[in-house]
Amino acid sequence: MARSRRRANGEGSVFQRKDGRWVMQIWLGDKYKQTYVKSQKEGIQALKKAQQELEQGTLATGPRRKLGEYVEDWLENVHKDKLRLSTYVKYKKLIKYIVAELGNVWLQKLTPEQVQRFYTKLGKKKEDGGRGLSPKTIHEVHGVLHLALKNAVRWSLISRNVCDLVSPPRLVKPDIKPLTMEQAKNLLEVVRGHRLETLLTMALTTGMRRGELLALRWSDVNLEEGTVIVKHTVDYIARYGYVENEAKTEAGRRMIILPAFVVDMLKKHRVQQLELRLKAGDSWQNLDLVFTGLHGGYFNPRYMPKLFNKVLVEAGLPHICFHNLRHSAATLLLSMGVNIKMVQEILGHSDIVVTLGIYGHLLPAMHEEAMSKWDDKLNPNGQGNKEVK
Asked: How far apart are CA 229 and CA 193, in angstroms?
């Protein structure tokens, strides 16, 4: 008896069904992968491409899935454990945009054109049928979709990541408006005796982030040595409450040496906090926090902007967000001649490239100021030259 010939891996064919549709199929060793095509010619081209991808190990051999179903499953069952809770919540929100616009597209059929149009729609104004999202948010959507599709390529659900062929909108560098030295002095003068005095002073002198300040504990403060160690950050997340995390990077976990006047301010702040604790009695939450709510718990970060804005108005200063105090700290340190490498360490940036990217534009003016000092020392026509013997 003649034996039936075993099919070779990658063998395939193109044929027409009874309903008139053309089909390309390729044998994967244990099953056929079939794809509908428009014509016999297109099917032959698709078969050649599939055989080439199979040989290279890039052929999508997994089951067909809708994009919306896949990205939600990817986040919940694959990527969630790698993320902080705040990042996970953010990703869930970003994925909603993907599901709403592209959720019903077959993962394997997703094209660069579809994704590019999707980004364009996200950026259009709502009155023009878009979502009115900022370029920054669209970049974040792009980042999440790229990560999800990268995993799909790894699982052989798709043969390429279409996000590699798409350009999200150009990011516009934010206009940072730090406080001048005079404005900083004015702010601290107005806030004297205010509930936020020590908090704002530390933000302005150390460049600590809001979340780092609100998670700071007395056990992290050494008043004798005049130092604080930044270990944690805290934020309030809807449905989850206050969520505290360790610093994201090794550089973020840092020690900062405090100015002497800030150490004195912290000592007075601690005495005032102990008095407040005695008044609160049993209702006091002993979390060892430096900056607390009225009963010892976390200071509500959502309430802070209201208090901060009142202080700005009283000081006659332009409206700025709390994070601008961090930018102000960096700018003022640089203006006082502090080396940018030291500023990087104080701010907790993991790479000096980050610091230069934000504050590098300030360096040329400081460079000019530094070089002008040669006139005071070596200029033959200047006063400095007379001192040389």
From this structure: 25
CATH number, domain of 156, equals 1.10.150.130
Residue bearing the bigger pLDDT, 10 or 302: 302
Q: Is residue 386 part of a domain?
A: no
**Angle formed at CA 320 by CA 319 and CA 323, multiple of 5 degrees:** 165
Give the up-direction half-sphere exposure of residue 169: CA atoms within 13 A in the CB hemisphere. Answer: 20
Closest to 36 in 3D by CA, of 23, 54, 50: 23
**Residue 1: pLDDT band with limits 50, 70, 90:** very low
User: Using CA atoms, how far apart are residues 121 and 129, in angstroms rounded to an integer?
Assistant: 7
**Claim: this prediction has a pTM higher than 0.85:** no
When pLDDT is averaged across residues 55-71 and rounded to a whole number, the result is 77
Same domain assignment for residues 78 and 50: no
Q: Cα–Cα distance between 335 and 309 in angstroms, integer?
A: 26
**Residues 342, 230 share a domain:** yes
pLDDT for 184-239, tens place per residue?
999 999 999 999 999 999 999 999 999 999 999 999 999 999 999 999 999 999 88
Do 250 and 357 have their domain in common? Answer: yes
Q: Would you state the torsion angle of the CA atoms of residues 296, 300, 305, 310, taken in this order, to the nearest 10 degrees?
A: -40
| Cα–Cα distance for residue pair 185/204, rounded to 1 Å | 10
Beta strands in the chain (DSSP E): 12-16, 22-27, 32-37, 221-222, 227-230, 232-237, 241-246, 254-257
Q: Which residue has 């000592």 as its token pair?
A: 267
Q: Which two tokens stand for residue 375?
A: 């006139």
